[in-house]
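A quick aside before the break. I want you to see a complete sequence-to-structure record at least once, exactly as it would be stored in a machine-readable document. Don't worry about memorizing anything.
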Amino acid sequence: MWRFHFTGEDLARLRFEASPGPVMESWFALNVMARRRPGALFEPWRRGVTPRDSLRLLAGLAQGVHPFDVYTLAGAGAHVEEGVERILGVRAGSVRAELDSWGQYGDLPSWSRRLPDDAEARGHFVAAVREACTALLGPYRDPLRAHLEAEVATRAGVMARGGAERLLSTLHPDLVWRDMTLDVPTRFTAQTIDVHLNGRGLVLIPSVFCRLPLFSCDGFRPDDAPVLFYPALRDPADAFALWGHGAAGSSRRAGTLAALLGPTRAAVLEEVGRGCTTTHLARRLSISAATASHHVSVLRDSGLVVSRRQGGSVLHLLTPLGLSLLNGALPAAN
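That is the input. The structure line, written in tokens, reads:
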């Protein structure tokens, strides 16, 4: 576990970056790709990724509970080329130190040992990074950016209304805020690692593909604020908005779903994927509120939909099973 020790100055210097940048986001995406079962949130995305040599080359550094920290080399630039240029310009000693640090938690691929001093090896590495960013993020860059911007805006609102302490206590279910400390669980060590911010503050960066909160600290710039990446995709409705609705083959899947559930109930399931109340559902599909409520009730009893009270309304959302069904993960016919 990491334990961050805050002062009043650190709380005042708490800030967000809108994105980890395409290089680090693709690094997290490689980690998701390596999982045998990525879960309903990511399965529709993974099915659309075309296998490439670059993904296999980089997987050895990106997978595991503590992936190689490419963020310290590439930074959070908005464009792939910004990250690539930074990687090419990093001094050999810095690259070697990052590899040695990561080597404590996993076996380094043999080719990676050439990265610090071999310009050709580093060139092959950044070429693989470019290709991985295209393969993993390419068709979703605009939705990913919009989702992360919305996440930051929401969190900024929490901080404006309740202060930094309210923000930290609600940022993620795994994080524990108490007595000016933030506990961040990790699976790569059973020990508690104390991190004293000493007035540097903390940079919070949401990531769509990050599965668990992850700490990054640049040992070559010790005066810079450490970074905490945290998962920004936890709701099936958000996952559907990111890649389910616009994925290739959606028309064919919609027809299959209509044949399975009936056209009206299939349309209800699709609308619930965007998040809606019964009133909005009835209005969007031009059906009565009673009919909409009946279809939602059947889908809820089937484990495809969950309903949550939000203020004076009840919001309907997909369960992971509902998301999988909507995105085409139907049982194979016998």
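Two observations worth writing down. The mean pLDDT is 84. The chain has two domains: 7-141+196-234, 237-326. We'll return to this after the break.
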